[in-house]
Amino acid sequence: MRILKYSVFGIVIYLFKQRVEMTVEEFNILSEVGKKELLIDAKKITEYEDDIAKHELFRIDNFFVEVSISVTYRFRKITNTYSL
After folding, report:
1. How many CA atoms lie within 13 A of 66 on its CB side?
2. Is the Cα torsion angle 30, 36, 40, 45 positive or negative in sign?
3. DSSP letters along 9-58, please?
4. Digit-coded pLDDT (tens) for 27-40
5. In angstroms, rounded to a whole number, what is the distance separating the alpha carbons of residues 51 and 70?
């Protein structure tokens, strides 16, 4: 639950905002920038590196996002999404 604090005419108002879980379908329609912003707060499950790329697996709500990072060029690409 998130608490939002507003001040109106010197009166402080607190609003309680219920957090809504995102679905994998909602994530997939986001822009690349929006997806990368969500990955900042996502929980990293695991990572491994091969000769070509570093691969990371993140969990957001009830789905997983696989990300590949090029070892040579250092670009980051979301490769797959998986839901439970």
Report:
1. 10
2. positive
3. TTEEEEEEE---PPPHHHHHTS-HHHHHHHHHHSEEEEEEE-SSEEEEEE
4. 899 888 888 888 88
5. 9
